[in-house]
What does this fold into?
Amino acid sequence: MQDFLELAVSATASGCIYGLIALAYLLMIRPTGIINFAVGEWAMVGAFGGFLLLSKAEWPYPVGMAAVLGFMLLVGWATERVAVRPLVERGAPLLAPILALLGMLVVFRESISLAFGPDPHQVPYPFGFGRLELGPLAGPYQSFFIIGATLVVFAAAWLFFERTLWGKCFEAVAIHRRAAALVGIDLGRVTALSFAAGGAAAGLGGLLVSANVSAHYLMGVPLAIQGFTALVIGGVGRVEGALLGGLLLAFAEQFTVRYAPLPAGYAQGVPLIMLMLFLLLRPTGLLAAREARA
Amino acid sequence: MIALVRWVGTAIALSAVAFFLGDYYNDVYRKLLLWVALALSYNFLFGISGQVAFSHFAFYGIGAYSVVILLFQAQLPLPVAIILGVVVCVVVALGVAIPSTRLEGFYLALVTLALAQLFIVVLNEGGTVTGGTGGLVDYRLPTILGVRIAGPWYTAVIVVLVLVTLAVLWRLDRSWFGRACRAVRDNPEAASAMGVDVARTKVIAFTLTSALAGLAGMVYAFVDNTVSPPIFGLENAFLLLFMVIVGGAGRHAGAIVGAVLLYLLPFVLSPLIGHHHALVFGVLMVAAILLQPRGIIGIYDRLRGS
It folds into this structure.
């Protein structure tokens, strides 16, 4: 039982990371339909930002974290400017920006590898090592920090979509692009904002996970796969779906490693199997999108 | 008849080159030909049928590994091993394509990305069957009727593979099926209204091109006489996509130009920037999509048109 709860805490923490990556996808897919596989690389850029500011420059954690998130907003916005907007304005098919973003994925990764070399770089913990015990639940500080930070982000995203006018604009664009444009919503601005927010969400995920796994230039693609699997499980329609999908995926992964008699490397196959299962059985994900109200 | 003469003439000309090259350049030439074969079949999958998949290079690896395992661990004769290797590729391809093409959007891209990742995991964890991280080494092409094909003659085998791939895809592209693929790519609803079975067309195109990639992998297995996990990494799946886009998606000539250019580019660039040529590929890819969506062939067409 102790073992089980210990595992549950660590699975929840990695589920939160997947959830953040899934949220980054979702923020961009909902209004634009564009799947941005570069989110994994954004997470990596966030992790290296953490290394630069927190390990090398030794900024205090909250300041460094805020700076990284601010920078990631900029990265997301700039990516949209360079690789998405010219294509959308030209009326290119949806595939074009997706492919351009794949090219950006390689550009991000190779630039980081050029600048930092192929070795992993340590990123510090905000609260140091040490364990926190909350009744029967126990785990490293970092796990609880990840869970707390993720919950704050998801609460903010939920409030944004449910309670603000801007959030309603996003929903409107997601439900019907042309109608939204006709009632005066600036599509370009919604797209730019969704990419900036996606950059920040992915960057936060990367920063949080890098304390456990170190910043490495190849960390992006696995995160991109796990994040998207989380999104498929939860459904692209609702913010909560991203978190739910991430948690389910992480539990499936970690319990396979712990209890199934398989080599640990095969845990990487869990996302593929879950992806296939959900595509076959429930392609809309667990939580369906809200329909337009008449 | 004239067409046949032309194909045979091309085969002889391309093979003859190999007899004038030294060992090193023969090796470069063989790999160039294999990239051309892969780019041709990937172009049919991505450029003509419009399916974004990252599994093409994994199928190349599946073909290479399965022929080696079937030959030297199951001790099967060469023709049986080749046929069974193709069967393995077809079964895996069907298993991936049937669930993911039922849905719209880019699910295939994601499933195939995960498959490519999983393939490397299986290779690394496969124990004695796949040889783990070191892969399988020290095997030789079995003799056929007492003759072992080696040196430039093996390059000729690769030339035949490239031309067979091109011939099959060429004929297919000009057939009913090729037009159905293009229709499905450009407008699935309209294609469906015209009586094309969209899902089936996608599944057949995916399976066929994946099997062609597997066949190329089988030929590759005896180029270096080594198969190991790093050779079949995800990097090369991206490279293949970039080759087709930079060269000109949807055109056989584009795939060939893209493969030749991106394969030879690192030889030119490495004295300048070392191993970071992938950065140049990424920039080329973004530039191609933003500035010239038809790729190099598009530029050529425009120059010839004006």
Observations:
- Chain B has a mean pLDDT of 88.
